[in-house]
Amino acid sequence: RAAALSLDAASRVNRAHRPSREGSAPVFRVVPVRAKVERRAAGFPSANPPSRNAADEARASSKNMGSTGEETQITCKFVTRLPEKYRISPTPFAVPGKLTRYGLSEVINHLLALDPPKPFDFLVDGELVRTSLEKLLLRKGVSAESTLEVEYIPAVGPPSEEATGKHDDWVAGVCGSWGGAIATASYDGTTRLYSPKGKHLVTLDGHAQPVVAVTLLPPTEDDGNGCVVVSGGHDCVVRAWDVVVDAKGDSAKHVGSSRVFVGHEGTITSVAASPDGVCFASGSYDKTARVWARTVGADAKTHDDEIEAAREARAAEWKATAPSSSKRRKGKDGDGEDAVSDVRPLERSVFEALGIPDPNDAKKKPAEEEDEEEEELPAGVVVLRGHTDAVTAVAWESVDVVWTGSMDHSLKSFDADAGTCVQTYAAPKCVMGLAVRAGGGMLAWCGGGDRMVHFWDPRVGNATGATTSLASHTEMVVSVAWCPGSEYQLASTAYDGNVKLWDIRGKLPLHTVKAHPGKPHTARALCVDYHGPNRVVSGGIDGRLRIFKVDNEDRAS
User: Fold this and answer.
1) What is the DSSP letter of 9?
2) What sign for the dihedral angle of Cα 280, 199, 537, 487?
3) Which of 165, 201, 437, 514 is packed most tightly, with the most Cβ within 10 A?
């Protein structure tokens, strides 16, 4: 038994472990080794030095906490939910209390005889081990004489950049929810699709102003290899395109006619597809969110032709009826003299001619008049009201429940069919980004200037105060996304240009990537999402789509 539990010399662990007292657990003796050697034996990439957080953790935990100078031994029982080939005997044995996750991973790799070694992470009472075992017990007030149950899980590997895509302006929105492609929304007025390897597939034009939000409706049985790309932006209109990607994923094309969804009276800030792909939600600066059936949009070409025809008609009318000199409006210039200006309400006339809400009205209309006119809604459209400021984020909990985040410092859930508000959470800051964990439950959100990622569990029922928060970014966090298939992993991005990967069972990020580098205050990332559990995608003011590969075997843990 002693031979079975001893570590080999290559790992710098003494084969001749100390004889245990009768009835006590076997004991490992670990000889200190250099960080790179220890990380390699533990399965962690030696080519990548530990992050600052990891280095601080290692230095702090390397000091023996015992006042007597004797090495503290802690009896551990290692358990896992991994397949049988990764399981060791549940019999407890003693390990040095100064071991951190790297040393523990070395132990598990030796006992499993893994070649090459595999990195593991460790949980005690549902919390990731980020100090030495001895410090962990002291913090929890647990005696070192007790048997500590330690669960081991695969560690998430560091992200590596796989590909990039390029826009002519800021990339403000990104969506990787469909396996066939990654969608981007840009201030250059276009929406684009890229392959998972970063190849540009198709560019979708139509918006008259910057595009800031995009989502992908999951394919239905009729879509085949295609999907529906939905985008929104500063022109206050949502547009949708049917796109088909070839079987090899090397090219894509827009099929049929695109559709427009008209009704918002302010900039579209966010769009999100329902889990079943039947409808989508949109949020706007007009203080509302809307749920749209994918079939209710008007034909985009007809809509655009009507806009252009109305524009030309009003221009011709103006030219025919205008006086020879410019129509004058009196005012005062900086010197107090009468000033004149051209008054050409052409754009407003176009909106009036087509019966389309003028987006400028949302800013000009007095608050007491906002609810006077009852909008007649077509079938398949539901308006979600209740916020008192811009709706900046939308996310689906299920096919029946939509969550919204707002500049009014609140999160609200709505019945997607009835449009009624079901639950309200008073956030301490304005909400900029929102993500709901698959299957419901935990909400992740960000915003304000506190540089944190916040979490709230609606099942707890508290109307104020975040359940927990994670701090590491150095600028405002603007986007969050849950990892598909995981209860605990998510990504965040901020104005510091970084993408961070988290496991909410720990307080430190798993990894930090400088996704959108630049000078201080100019290196801004704007959006982040997952493309499956093993890719993270982001966009920023550098006009780049960044695609990162992540070694993630713990996606279901």
Assistant:
1) G
2) positive
3) 165
pLDDT digits 0-9 by tens, 244-300: 887 777 778 877 778 999 999 999 999 999 999 999 999 999 999 999 999 898 877
Distance of CA 177 to CAs 162, 216, 325, 543, Å? 18, 7, 56, 21
Q: Give the rounded distance of the alpha carbon of 112 from its chain centre.
A: 35
Give the strand pairing for 148-154 and 73-79.
parallel
- Tens of pLDDT, residue by residue over 311-368, are 667 677 776 776 554 444 444 444 554 444 444 444 444 344 434 455 555 444 554 4
Q: Residue 17: which of 95, 111, 98, 78 has the closest Cα?
A: 95
Round to whole Å and give the CA distance between 142 and 496: 39
Among residues 273, 282, 279, which one has the least CA distance to residue 212? Answer: 282
First-to-last C-alpha distance (Å) of the chain = 31
Please determine, looking at this structure, whether the domain spanning 2-154 carries the CATH number 3.10.20.90.
yes
Amino acid identity of 236? C
Cα separations in angstroms, 159 against 448, 513, 514, 517: 27, 7, 11, 16
In sequence order, what are the beta bridge partners of 373? none
Neighbours of 148 (CB within 10 A): 21
Strand partners, 251: none
Give the CATH H-level superfamily of domain 160-296+380-549: YVTN repeat-like/Quinoprotein amine dehydrogenase (2.130.10.10)
| Domain parsing of the chain, residue ranges | 2-154, 160-296+380-549, 304-320+339-367
Least Cα distance to 498 among 445, 429, 451, 447 occurs for 451
Token readout for 474 is: 């150095």
Quote the CA–CA distance of 109 and 122 in Å, as a whole number.
13
Sheet with strand 120-124: strands edge to edge: 93-96, 73-79, 148-154, 120-124, 127-128
> Which string of b and e fits 18-44 if b means at least 16 CB within 10 Å?
eeeeeeebbbbbbeebebeebbbbbbb
